[in-house]
Amino acid sequence: MAKQKSGDGSGKLLTTVATTAAVFVARKLVTAGWTRATGKTPPTDPSDPHIGVGEALVWAAIVGGTIEATRLFTARATTHRARAEKAAAEEQ
Questions:
Q1: Which of 7, 10, 61, 74 could disulfide-pair with 19, CB 3.0 to 4.6 Å?
Q2: Mind listing the pLDDT tens digit for each residue in 55-92?
Q3: Distances (CA, A) of 44 to 10, 17, 23, 53
Q4: Could you tell me what percent of the chain has a pLDDT over 70?
C-alpha cells in the first residue's frame, strides 16, 4: 500500500464527506431499484426464514459491489480534483 503524505486535512475531510454522501445516495437508489424490480423490500434480517439464501446473496452482492464502487470512484474523483486545485493555486 502506498504511503500517503501528511498534508492538508481539509482534503481528507472533503473526501470523507463526499464519499459518505455518495454512499448514502447509492444505497437509497439500490434499495429503490430492488423494490421496483422485485416488488419486495430488500432483505435486511439474515435470520428471517421468509428470505431465501439466494435472494439474500444476490442483495449482498449488489449492495456490496455498488457501495465499494461508489466509495472508490468518489474518493478518486475528490482526490483528483483537490490535487488539480492545489496545482493550479501553486502556479499562480
A1: 74
A2: 999 999 999 999 999 999 999 998 888 888 888 888 87
A3: 35, 25, 17, 12
A4: 91
C-alpha cell at 6: 501528511
Task: Tell me which residue has cell 466509495.
Answer: 71
How far is 13 from 43, CA to CA, in rounded Å?
A: 32
Judge whether 24 and 92 are in contact, CB under 8 Å.
no
Question: H-type helices in 1-92, by residue range?
Answer: 9-38, 53-91
Cα 72–Cα 80–Cα 6 angle in degrees, nearest 5? 90
Q: What is the pLDDT of residue 40?
A: 92
Q: Which of 19, 28, 30 is nearest to 63 (CA)?
A: 30
